[in-house]
C-alpha cells in the first residue's frame, strides 16, 4: 500500500509516461494542439491514473521532480513532432500544473531554460491551471503567472465553471485560453440551461479575447451545438482519445 515509495522510484525508473490528446478546430476537425496527460505504469499494479497519484505527489513534494519531468518530456516531444511532422505537427502542447507548482518561485526560470533547451518558441507551450489551484493563494499565483506570461508562454484556465470564482479568475489572471469543463459539455444537448451557460461563456471569452476549448466532447451532436456557439476548439473522445506520441501522425478526424 506504500504508493509513496513506489512513486519515488517511478520517477527514476521510467515508469511514468505522457499520452497526448488532440485539441481540434471545431470548424474543420483538424488537429490544432495537444494536451499532455501523465500516466504511471506500476510494475505490479499496472496502469495508475493521475487522479490517484497526483494527490500523493502533491502531499509528498514529489510533484516538483514529476512536474519538471513532464515539462522536459513534453517540450522535447514537441521538438520531435516539429522535426518529423512538419506542417502537420501540433501548433502547441499544453501541460497541467498542479496547485503546488504555483508556489515554486523558480518555475519561470525553469520554464525559460527548458524552452531554450528544446529550441521551442514560448507561445507553443500552454500551461493549464485550474480555478481552484489559482484561487487557493491568488496573490502568489498572480505573481508567478505574471512572470510566466512575460516569457511568452500561454495560460489556460482548466475545468472552467467548476470553481467558486470563475468570473473573478477571468479578470484577475492574464489568461489566454479558457477550457469549458466537460460537465457542461456533457449536458449541452440535454438541457437548455447548460446550453445557455456554455453559449454565454463562449461569448464572454470572445469579448475578452480569450480562446475557448470545450472539453469532453463525446458526440457529434455536442460538437455541432458548440460549433453553432462559435466555440473555436474542442477536445474529447468523439475526436480522439489520448494517444502515444508516435500515434499522433495517424490522427485524422472524419465526422460520423
Ligand atoms: O488523463 P486523466 O483524465 O486520467 O487525468 C485526470 C486528471 O489528472 C486531470 O484532471 C488532469 O488535469 C490531471 N493530470 C494529467 N496529467 C497531469 C500532469 O502532468 N500534471 C498534473 N499536475 N496533473 C495532471
Ligand atoms: O481535468 P482535465 O481537463 O485535465 O481532464 C483531462 C482528462 O479528461 C483526461 O484524463 C482525459 O483522459 C479525460 N477526457 C478527455 N476526453 C474525454 C471525454 O470525451 N470524456 C471523458 N469522460 N473524459 C475525457
Ligand atoms: Na487539463
Automatic annotation (TrEMBL):
Domain of life: Bacteria
Residue ranges occupied by any EAL domain in the UniProt entry: 1-256
Subcellular locations according to the entry: Cell inner membrane
Entry's Gene Ontology molecular function annotations: nucleotide binding; transferase activity
GO cellular component: plasma membrane
Main location: membrane
Record keywords: Cell inner membrane, Cell membrane, Coiled coil, Membrane, Nucleotide-binding, Repeat, Transferase, Transmembrane, Transmembrane helix
Name used for this protein in its record: EAL domain-containing protein
Entire protein: shown range: 578 to 833 of 840
Amino acid at each position: 500500500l506504500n504508493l509513496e515509495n513506489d512513486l519515488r522510484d517511478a520517477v527514476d525508473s521510467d515508469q511514468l509516461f505522457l499520452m497526448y490528446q488532440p485539441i481540434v478546430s471545431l470548424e474543420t476537425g483538424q488537429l490544432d494542439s495537444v494536451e499532455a496527460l501523465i500516466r504511471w505504469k506500476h510494475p505490479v499494479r499496472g496502469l495508475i491514473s493521475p487522479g490517484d497519484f497526483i494527490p500523493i505527489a502533491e502531499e509528498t513534494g514529489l510533484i516538483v521532480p514529476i512536474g519538471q519531468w513532464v515539462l522536459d518530456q513534453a517540450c522535447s516531444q514537441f521538438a520531435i513532432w516539429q522535426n518529423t511532422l512538419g506542417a502537420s505537427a501540433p501548433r502547441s502542447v499544453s501541460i497541467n500544473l498542479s496547485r503546488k507548482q504555483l508556489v515554486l518561485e523558480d518555475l519561470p526560470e525553469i520554464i525559460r531554460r527548458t524552452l531554450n533547451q528544446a529550441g521551442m518558441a514560448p507561445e507553443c507551450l500552454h500551461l493549464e491551471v485550474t480555478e481552484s489551484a489559482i484561487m487557493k493563494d491568488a496573490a502568489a499565483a498572480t505573481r508567478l503567472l505574471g512572470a510566466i506570461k512575460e516569457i511568452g508562454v500561454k495560460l489556460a484556465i482548466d475545468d472552467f465553471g467548476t470553481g467558486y470564482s470563475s468570473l473573478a479568475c477571468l479578470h484577475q489572471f492574464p489568461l489566454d485560453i479558457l477550457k469549458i469543463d466537460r460537465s457542461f459539455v456533457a449536458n449541452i444537448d440535454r438541457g437548455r440551461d447548460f446550453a445557455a451557460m456554455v453559449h454565454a461563456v463562449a461569448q464572454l471569452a470572445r469579448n475578452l479575447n480569450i480562446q475557448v476549448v470545450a472539453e469532453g466532447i463525446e458526440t457529434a451532436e455536442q460538437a455541432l451545438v458548440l460549433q453553432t456557439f462559435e466555440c473555436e476548439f474542442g477536445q474529447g473522445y468523439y475526436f480522439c482519445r489520448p494517444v502515444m506520441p508516435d500515434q499522433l501522425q495517424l490522427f485524422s478526424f472524419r465526422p460520423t
